[in-house]
């Protein structure tokens, strides 16, 4: 049984003429223990998809089943409990609380679960040792490098032993060395049996995944297995592809703009173009005034 199963899921924002389709009839099935990388341009719906899977948002249409249970039937308290106990989130911007030290940040999910202070701090300390930051327990977030802050975020996501790790651009704010370290940590987590869903723009990071999902304009356009350690050919094409626009593309863009802003077309019709011959006549009729001395 898949741990995540979406059937014809759509997400709409706004209403009437201002409606925006973020997801359009997306179907996706993820087995327990898979490492899935989700790729696509900005605005293609990747983050919206992750928010729905992570129970941070609700689909407008379609069905979402989590471990065979329909999410739509869950009460708000049940959704919150499932999100707390079964999901771990890793964000591009780390989202560490600035007034809490590293140990307290990692222990925070356990506090929401009602674990005693002594036990949650002990578990948080063990998790920091696992990510190589045992000597940074009492540092404040502002005292950490970007790579260290991301490792703290990974430790916080893991401290509750969730079933699914959702990583939204986990290396977006890191240099190449810190990115490799963070991805190696995620790879180790995957080998322990956790399910990982990772959004990324970087094709190089797909070498850690065993399945690549490509999105475009709110839809899944391709879904392929991948061998861990290799960057798939399709991802490499995305890496080196440089779009070239033609005159037809420019005209299509202008047409789309006119359709999006109908007022412009009306204003353009109101302006009467001046014929070139008439313009010359007007120009010639203007004679310099005689100066009387």
CATH topology of the domain at 32-57 and 73-240: Rossmann fold
Spatial strand sequence of the major β-sheet: 6-7-8-3-9-10
Shape, principal axes of CA atoms: globular
Amount of helix: 25-40%
Structural class: alpha/beta
Mean pLDDT: 84
Q: For the CA atoms, what is the radius of gyration?
A: 27 Å
- Per CATH, the class of the domain at 32-57 and 73-240 reads Alpha Beta
| Main sheet attributes: strand count, strand direction, barrel closure | 6 strands, mixed
Series of secondary-structure elements, N-terminal to C-terminal: EEEHEEHEHHHEHEEEHHHH
Number of strands: 10
Percent of sequence in beta strands: 15-25%
Give the name of the CATH architecture of the domain at 32-57 and 73-240: 3-Layer(aba) Sandwich
Provide a descriptive summary of the structure in words:
By secondary structure, the protein is an alpha/beta fold. 39% of the residues lie in helices and 21% in strands. It has ten helices and ten strands. The strands form two sheets. It has a six-stranded mixed beta sheet with strand order 6-7-8-3-9-10, with helices on both faces. Helix 6 links the parallel strand 7 and strand 8. The longest helix has 16 residues. The radius of gyration is 27 Å and the shape is globular.
